[in-house]
Amino acid sequence: MTNVVIEALTKRFGAAAAIDAFSLSIAEGEFVSLLGPSGCGKSTTLRLIAGFEKADAGQILFDGQDVAHLAPEKRNIGMVFQSYALFPHMTVAQNLAFGLEMRKESRTAIGERVAKALAMVRLDAEADRYPRALSGGQQQRVALARALVIEPRILLLDEPLANLDAKLRDEMREFIVDLQRRVGITTIYVTHDQAEAMTMSDRIVVMFKGKVAQYGAPRDIYERPKGLEVATFIGQANFLKATVTPQEGRLMAQTVLGARDLLNESGHAPGAETSVLVRPEALTLVDPGEPGVVPGVIESAHYSGNFTEYRLRLPGGEMVSIQVGGPARQARGDAVGLRLAPEPLWSIELAA
């Protein structure tokens, strides 16, 4: 296993900085995802780590060794591309053997390592088949095995699930995570899919415009985003106006839905106005006649199969989204009650 440290990495294409003073530290054996919108620099960062692009400035350290100026083949990385990039004229076993042959391994060693890699991805029976005879999921597993058979220091994956259908993507998420845990290899994974990043990663790098907006565990990024841009990019977000009020030595956020503890008290003074993040799952739809609930009016209802998303207007005119399991039971114009979960709230400063 290898630790990876990236320091002030910069890459320009003409006058534009695709990657701008990007810094990151990845522990041995970690699964880290680079997450962000199209054009934010995720794939460019991965290509810089792999050596397919040359950095204009900064360092890329593998176990303390700066590899930023080494050729890709000198970095000992395993790479899985979105297109898989399998050799169509070679069998599965030959695809896996190719990298070992380039390293001039013995025929015996190649045979043993190919067999081990195929067993690892559960494709022993497909060794003599060609890529065109395999399903998309099988091709992806061949690409993973080919990347791992050379025993790389780190594994890099560039949106490897993008070409698969939804059901197969879900299956392959579990397969990749299980494989990575079994192998124990440091892994960097590029995706624009939030669900992939949230379910697969030990930590997530949220990127915007070539910079790190936030780096942390999935739960921290979802529940405690550093700023409006991250909060709105990750999941559904409601923002409620709040007044900071003191109570028994702590600060509370007083909202139209009630008062809750304020998680990030620093920088807030009693009486200050702020906004707090409320995720849809923190809201419950109840009978408007129940005591202590806030009344609301449904503006829209959209059924998505396993849940219905409602948009509600609150007494002060604020709008919130809430997700309720199952089909829609209320319609536009219905009066409902709304209850906020008792958990503390996270303050987010909105643009003026």
Overview of the structural elements:
It is elongated, with a radius of gyration of 25 Å. The longest helix has 18 residues, at 166-183. Helix 2 (92-102) crosses helix 3 (107-120), helix 2 packs parallel to helix 4 and helix 3 packs across helix 4. 24% of the residues lie in helices and 35% in strands. It has 2 domains: 4-232, Rossmann fold; 236-347, Nucleic acid-binding proteins (OB fold (Dihydrolipoamide Acetyltransferase, E2P)), CATH 2.40.50. With 352 residues, the chain is of the alpha+beta class. The mean pLDDT is 93. It has helices at 42-50, 92-102, 107-120, 136-149, 166-183, 194-200, 218-223, 228-233; strands at residues 4-13, 16-26, 31-35, 57-62, 65-66, 77-80, 154-158, 186-191, 203-208, 211-216, 238-247, 250-255, 258-261, 273-278, 283-286, 294-303, 307-313, 319-325, 335-340, 346-347. The protein has a 6-stranded mixed sheet with strand order 6-7-8-3-9-10, sandwiched between helices. Strands 13-12-11-14-20 form a 5-stranded antiparallel sheet, with no helix packed on it. It has a 5-stranded antiparallel sheet with strand order 15-19-16-17-18, with no helix packed on it.
Q: How many individual β-strands?
A: 20
Spans of at least 5 consecutive residues whose pLDDT stays below 50 are none
Shape-level CATH architecture of the largest domain: 3-Layer(aba) Sandwich
Q: Do you know the CATH topology of the largest domain?
A: Rossmann fold
Largest sheet: 6 strands, mixed
